[in-house]
Design goal:
- It is a single chain.
- The chain is mainly α.
- The protein has helices at about 1-70, 70-125, 130-140.
- Helix 2 packs across helix 3.
- Residues about 130-140 have low confidence and may be disordered.
Length: about 190
């Protein structure tokens, strides 16, 4: 029995000695190169993540190319959809062009009508400026976005008196600035 106990007690001693050796070796390794190991693990993790994302995207592109080359129906449908979208945009553009042409035509008609009215009023001997402006005001009773409100200069109050000239040096009150002397300072 004593032999069995000795063999049992001897075995854990060997295991503890191995664990101590492992602990000392790993501990000294981590103490010497611990931060290098941590940063290199983080770097390898980031690089692995980037590469795995690129590899997944590359595989996806290869699968899409293979599917597109295998299925010509998909390519034809895609081209038809693209042509339909282009046709729709062209129709919208044509509609906008037609609206713009109609507006230009109306403006030209309005100018022609005003010129005719001015000519008629001049033939009758009336002032053509006042008559030309009245029909515009009657045609558009609401506020127009294209008309600009012109203010008369007599309505505004001048900011300074008429005799003020900032370059003359007069009329500035008690504040008069003069530049300093040129040349070296007279320190003695």
């Amino acid at each position: 029995m004593e032999r069995e106990e000795d063999s049992l007690s001897a075995r854990p001693a060997l295991e503890t000695e191995g664990l101590r050796f492992l602990h000392v070796t790993v501990g000294s390794l981590l103490a010497s190169y611990g931060w290098y190991i941590v940063f290199s693990c983080i770097f390898l993790y980031v690089v692995f993540q980037k590469l795995s994302a690129r590899l997944r995207a590359l595989r996806q592109r290869q699968l899409e190319r293979a599917a597109a080359s295998v299925e010509p129906d998909v390519v034809v449908k895609r081209q038809e959809a693209l042509a339909a979208a282009r046709l729709k945009m062209q129709e919208e553009l044509n509609a906008q062009v037609e609206k713009h042409k109609e507006k230009l035509k109306q403006l030209e008609e309005e100018k022609r009508r005003q010129k005719i009215e001015m000519w008629d009023s001049m033939q009758e001997g009336k002032s053509y400026k006042g008559n030309a402006k009245k029909p515009q005001e009657e045609d558009s009773p609401g506020p127009s976005t294209s008309s600009v409100v012109v203010k008369r200069k007599s309505d505004r109050k001048p900011l300074r008196g008429g005799g003020y000239n900032p370059l003359s040096g007069e009329g500035g009150g008690s504040c008069s600035w003069r530049p300093g002397r040129r040349g070296p300072s007279s320190g003695g």
